[in-house]
Amino acid sequence: MSTQSALLKVMSDAARKAARGLNRDFGELAELQVSRKGAADYVSAADIKAEQVLFEALSKARPGYGFLGEERGLIEGTDKTHTWIVDPLDGTTNFLHAIPHFAINIALQREGVVVAAVTYNPITNELFWAEKGKGCFVNDKRLRVAARKHLDEAVLATGIPFLGHGQHAKFLKELHQISQRVAGVRRFGAAALDLAFVAAGRFDGFWERDLKPWDLAAGLLLVSEAGGKVTDLDGGEDVLGTGTVLASNLELHPLVLEKLKLAA
């Protein structure tokens, strides 16, 4: 049954509230095609505004919880066991170019473990959500990772390091190892949605380096609650610490990891 708990309802309501402003700004941006500098400033203002809405909504619903946001960093709460991990706009470059593929990401960490997650694409109105031990859903539909077992049938997603970020040479080696063995590699520009798409069985796997906790926290839970496996790129558990991730189903995970290690 896909009835949301009170906690999930709080998170979903906050995401939808922040989405209203982002939708409005996205519509204007698509019309404006503002000057280069102007567009970036506009998006950064949209980002900050969305995070403010999330911060206020979540703080009101759960006073005292800590808050780790992309814009404001870590705000310690009086309740040391709970922390919200929030990205108000994952896929900023897409947003800036009026590409309708971006998301609001909210995760709740309890004593260091992610226990609830929401990833919301306001344009498609797809709300991906999960609570530890209770499964993964999009809107009211239960999700499972794809059942493909062979790399030659698999479509994987990744992220390409951009200007001033990450290790291009390493990425190209990894891409070389993977792309010649799979049905396709996609790069959509929003890690939160890449992970949600793995949970939904649309992608068979996703790997990337140099990510932040707010890119990853919600998606980790979505994929594992959809029956998938998520590790860092060494095959370990410290995804949020290392900022590297491989998410896939149980069969493909070791196969992809082995190919990525060949690129090391």
TrEMBL record:
EC class (word): hydrolase
* Entries under InterPro entries matching the protein: IMPase, Inositol_monoP_metal-BS, Inositol_monophosphatase-like, Inositol_monophosphatase_CS, Inositol_monophosphatase_SuhB
Q: Name one Pfam family in it.
A: Inositol_P
Gene Ontology molecular functions: hydrolase activity
Cofactor(s) needed, names only, are: Mg(2+)
Q: What is its EC number?
A: 3.1.3.25
Write the record's keywords in alphabetical order, separated by commas: Hydrolase, Magnesium, Metal-binding
Q: Which reaction does it catalyse?
A: a myo-inositol phosphate + H2O = myo-inositol + phosphate
Query: Could you tell me which CDD domains the record lists for this protein?
Result: IMPase (cd01639)
| Origin superkingdom | Bacteria
Q: Which family does it belong to?
A: Belongs to the inositol monophosphatase superfamily.
Designated name of the protein: Inositol-1-monophosphatase
